[in-house]
Amino acid sequence: PVVRGSPGAPRGPHGPIHPTHTIRVRPLTCSEVRRGDRRVVHSLGGGTVHVSTTSVLGPDATFGFSAVFDAGDSQEAVFEGSGMRQLVELAMDGFSCTVFAFGQTGSGKTYTLMGPLGQGETHAASPALLGLMQRSFACLLEQSRSRGSDLALSASYLEIYNEQIRDLLSPGPPCTLPLRWSKTRGFYVENQLSVDFESLEAIASLLLQGSQRRRTSAHALNRHSSRSHALLTIHIRIHCTTPAGHGGSPPGPWPTGYSRGCGQGAVCHCWDPSESPPRAPRYPGRRCCKVWRKKSMPCSWKTSPCASSWVCPGCP
Ligand SMILES: Nc1ncnc2c1ncn2[C@@H]1O[C@H](COP(=O)(O)OP(=O)(O)OP(=O)(O)O)[C@@H](O)[C@H]1O
């Protein structure tokens, strides 16, 4: 069923951001066709799917989703129709965004996210088969170029297997990392590697490297079944600079991690340097820098009257 956002849903530039739930019906695999299996899930259009069951399992049922992709739909159609592009734009605006694939073994989660790369392929897939991940990397770098943003990008990749967390990017034999919690950071994985990247080739190679280290095995429903949950995180830091004669930095000391000021028309993003990785900036996309007060901030900030809402002299 479609899940609507709660009244307290976070707000984006165009109003509240609601989670979207899309479903993809995968085609029958060769072995299913050979076995004489038949499709029981069909798209009815308008975001609904019909599931025909046998009388043993109960009556037929219809479910509604934000979007439905049928067996013949391409990887590109799924990317364009599932809201992924908008999600990348929101991430660029400073929001934390998550894409979560859920389904029983063999239902097509890995294929949708990574294309044939997830099926143990070691060479680059045909561009038409690239999954949501590779397409969002391309979209992110494209967006960054078109906005003229000065981005610092890094990636971390881990898997959870048998309740143990393993870093998929750190070299050497796999070792288990501890899950910690702190007041400032919430839950985090200690000593997780975060690797900087600047190009599509670099992040594609990190994805390939990490995916090859994942635990997979064959079983009756899937020849390359992922045995773990995997989590790839892209951290985006956006720097803004002060053009000469415009704006300026508020009085220091100015902690590392905060944007250093904004010029006229510049879009500023501030984040809390004690958060690693940083959560979404509190005031993304504003023309003026705003910082929020924290105990960890230097005294001059806590006592300054404009500490919680600083307006650049050059901004309207
Ligand atoms: N849309 C699709 N078009 C063509 N083949 C697909 C599609 N979706 C999945 N498949 C094929 O179905 C099989 C199972 O897919 P996949 O490995 O992605 O499932 P999964 O949900 O990730 O399974 P697991 O949880 O076991 O890892 C694979 O052989 C894959 O190539």
TrEMBL record:
Residues 1-21 are annotated as: Disordered. ATP binds at residues 103-110. This is Uncharacterized protein. Keywords: ATP-binding, Cytoplasm, Cytoskeleton, Motor protein, Nucleotide-binding. It comes from Melopsittacus undulatus. Gene3D superfamilies: Kinesin motor domain. The keyword Cytoplasm applies. It comes from the Eukaryota. SMART domains: KISc (SM00129). One of its GO terms (molecular function) is microtubule motor activity.
